[in-house]
Amino acid sequence: MRGIVSDKKKGKNNHGAARPAGKKAEGQPSPALERSWSGRGENPGGERADKYIAEIAGILSRSQLKARAARIFVNGKEEKLSRRLSQGESLEVRWNDEPDHGLEPEKLDVKLLYEDANVFVFDKAQGMVTHPANGNWRGTLANAALWLDAERKGNGAAPRGGIVHRLDKDTSGVIIVARNVETHEYLSAQFKDRTTRKEYWAIVCPGPAMDEGHIENYLVRDKNNRKKFAGGDVAGKKAVTDYKVLSRWAIDGRRTYALIALYPKTGRTHQLRVHMAGIGCPILGDPLYGKRDALFPDATLMLHARRLKIALPGIAGPKLFKAAVPDRFRAIVATLEKIGHRG
Predict the structure, then answer these.
(1) Measured on CA atoms in the order 44, 47, 52, 55, is the torsion positive or negative?
(2) ∠ CA(160), CA(134), CA(185), 5° rounding?
(3) Coil, helix or strand at residue 188
(4) pLDDT tens sequence across 182-223
(5) Is 23's pLDDT higher than 90?
(6) Pair 146, 137: CB distance under 8 Å
(7) Of 173, 170, 122, which Cα lies nearest the Cα of 143?
């Protein structure tokens, strides 16, 4: 399913200029953001529209469709959410996003890898949320970026944090943030066109059979657990990952572990975690797609955004950013070196 998401604040005119509005009372959320998604049904198989949107397109869950007053249009005509879809039909969904709770600048302990007038590049710590969402309105990387931008400019104000791509809360490593709208569009286009190069490191157990591999399938929300995604051969969003084994260890000649480099060609939610679990090699410490490890029972998610190669405005040629190997990786590798045998 291919589609386009757009959004606009309620109260704007057709040219995008905001109409005058009363001053928002302190502590009150901003008006809800009106969003839309459009695409065409691919292999819907007579599915209800709400089920197709939730489980195959993965836009909103069925409960969210109701909670956010979603409206559905099939071939330009408004229909009920129960409408059954046919192959190739034009589909549009409109809904009210959650109210904007306001992105506040916060002085937080973050590690900067690079900065210029257009971007910040961070080494995000494991456990830090990238952008405010349910239950995490403060203490995010976006809050920190907003504070840094205001400090650098010296005027006590900054534009909305320009998050270009995201890392899961428990994934550490390189992430880039735009400091202005023009740069946000410039960077976003590269992610959309897949001209960036991303490299992640992970420790998996067991190690994959081959030293190199290519994984390509489609990801949809897991029907039994809305927090998870599952791989399939037809429906959903296409996901592509290459991998390469960097090191292997065997414990007592039976249990194997591997340090691998992952190269995602697409950027789907949980893509690397689903792909490794899908070939029988879940990432160590993954609470969703793996199991508690007997040798490392306290391990947290061993997934780290190691390198990012991307072009920046006004700079000739792409730049390569690298985040140091985290202590949690070093500790586990040191244990494997001590008690295991190199494969």
Answers:
(1) negative
(2) 30
(3) helix
(4) 898 899 999 989 999 999 999 999 999 999 999 999 999 888
(5) no
(6) no
(7) 122
The CATH architecture one would assign to domain 112-193 is 2-Layer Sandwich (3.30)
Query: Residue 134, exposed/middle/buried by CB under 10 A (0-12, 13-18, 19+)?
Result: exposed
Quick check: 32 and 10 in contact, CB under 8 A? yes
Per the listing, tokens 């009372």 go with: 25
| Statement: residue 55 has pLDDT above 50 | yes
Question: CA 172, CA 124: separation in Å to the nearest integer?
Answer: 5
Answer yes or no: are the C-beta atoms of 32 and 8 closer than 8 Å: no
Residue 138 or 100, more confident:
138
- By the 10 Å C-beta count (0-12 exposed, 13-18 middle, 19+ buried), 38 is classed as middle
Which entry of 168, 170, 286, 293 is annotated as an active-site residue?
A: 168
197-342: CATH homologous superfamily?
Pseudouridine synthase (3.30.2350.10)
Contact status, residue 72 vs residue 54, Cβ threshold 8 Å: no
Query: pLDDT-derived band of residue 102, with 50, 70 and 90 as boundaries?
Result: low
Beta bridge partners of residue 36, listed in sequence order? 6, 94
Taking only the tens place, the pLDDT of each residue in 110-127 is 999 999 999 999 999 999
| pTM of the model as a whole | 0.73
Domain topology for 3-7+31-99: 3.10.290
**What pLDDT band is residue 227 in, cutting at 50, 70 and 90?**
confident
CATH 3.30.2350.10 domain position(s) in the chain: 112-193, 197-342
User: What letter represents residue 119's amino acid?
Assistant: V
Indicate the SS3 state at residue 293: coil
Angle at 58 between CA 135 and CA 7, to 5 degrees: 70
CA 104/CA 143 separation, integer angstroms? 6
CB atoms within 10 A of CB 132: 21
Identify whether 168 is a catalytic site residue. yes
